[in-house]
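4.2 Preliminary Data

To establish feasibility before requesting continued support, the project team ran the inverse folding procedure on a target of 355 residues. The structure was first converted into the token representation described in Section 3, and no sequence information of any kind was made available to the design step. The complete token record follows.
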């Protein structure tokens, strides 16, 4: 008799994964870390609610592939955050998952050893360990929620969360965002469509239900109350979209949808044409817009690393250059520090009047 198979035809293995609860017990939160996350979450929410005049700035590597380099970067950023805290609230960009249009490295959690071995459990441990280190420094962290299960393992350590341009239109990501504890930014679509991000604000603000896993790894129905702290991220599309005319149009669209006009400008991605030098032009435009009376830009995003540019992942990983991105090209630390200090000096006395 011929065996008839109708499922799992393309599955070669199913491997058990440690539960979120187990990972959190192995890598527990200290009081210092809890304080860092809470202050980070509450500060961003107060900025979005117009109760805090500062800008929040998500800055750091395009992706994390070397946790030692990430720790060094975090130490530098913490010192700068303390210096600029009266004007800019700095949050370290710590992205562990990378969406790919075609193929490519999918991030530290999925492939921590950059060799396609995809030892995901190791990746989750490395990610949580790094986030705890950064939290102990007193530096809040920002990440992108890409996978629907991963947040159960590390989301408690993020003070701000992004939904990317490729997933803003995804209903499952909108419903997930409705249950996240942090404020959430939705990027406009890769083609520049802003309306889909505004629709995401409406969806995420409502109570939703979706399927994921609970802390003990059991498949569960997750029921949410809705997230009142969401905002738009302008990252460009077929053309940049950080200019005053586009910002004004976005403001009106957000108001028409019934939300407070809170806009984050992504200095990288399509706004910079993925050329790090162009991030400085975006930063200059945003600074001038604030000087000219803009009140809707409440956040910024920058891609920055220890060293300038990017590099392909070599077959021999010993050839990797330390502190250089393996995904999008980044500004180097010195340029980042100088640019943010300059911006702070120009807008420091203007921001208090915006609330």
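Position-by-position output of the design step:
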């Amino acid at each position: 008799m011929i065996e008839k198979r109708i499922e799992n035809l393309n599955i070669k293995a199913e491997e058990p994964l440690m539960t979120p609860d187990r990972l959190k017990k192995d890598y527990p939160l200290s009081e210092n870390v809890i304080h860092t996350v809470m202050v980070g979450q509450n500060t961003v929410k107060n900025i979005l609610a117009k109760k805090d005049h500062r800008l929040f700035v998500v800055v750091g590597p395009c992706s994390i592939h070397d946790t030692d380099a990430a720790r060094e970067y975090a130490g530098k950023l913490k010192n700068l955050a303390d210096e600029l805290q009266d004007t800019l609230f700095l949050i370290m960009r710590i992205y562990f998952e990378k969406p790919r249009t075609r193929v490519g490295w999918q991030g530290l959690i999925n492939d921590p050893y950059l060799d396609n071995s995809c030892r995901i459990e190791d990746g989750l441990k490395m990610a949580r360990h790094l986030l705890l280190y950064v939290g102990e420094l007193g530096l809040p962290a920002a990440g992108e929620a890409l996978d629907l299960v991963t947040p159960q393992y590390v989301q408690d350590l993020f003070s701000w969360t992004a939904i990317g341009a490729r997933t803003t239109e995804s209903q499952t990501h909108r419903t997930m965002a409705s249950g996240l504890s942090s404020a959430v930014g939705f990027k406009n679509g890769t083609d520049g469509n802003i309306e889909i991000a505004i629709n995401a604000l409406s969806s995420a603000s409502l109570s939703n239900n979706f399927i994921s896993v609970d802390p003990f790894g059991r498949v569960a129905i997750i029921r949410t109350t809705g997230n009142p702290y969401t905002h738009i991220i302008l990252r460009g599309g077929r053309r940049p979209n950080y200019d005053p005319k586009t910002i004004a149009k976005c403001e009106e669209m957000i108001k028409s949808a019934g939300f407070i006009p809170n806009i984050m400008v992504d200095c990288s991605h399509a706004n910079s044409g993925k050329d790090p030098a162009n991030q400085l032009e975006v930063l200059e435009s945003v600074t001038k817009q604030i000087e000219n009376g803009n009140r809707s830009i409440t956040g910024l995003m920058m891609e920055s690393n220890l060293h300038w540019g990017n590099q392909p992942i070599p077959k021999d990983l010993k050839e990797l250059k330390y502190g250089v991105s393996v995904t999008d090209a980044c500004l180097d630390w010195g340029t980042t520090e100088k640019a943010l200090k300059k911006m702070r000096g120009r807008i420091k006395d203007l921001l208090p009047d915006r609330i």
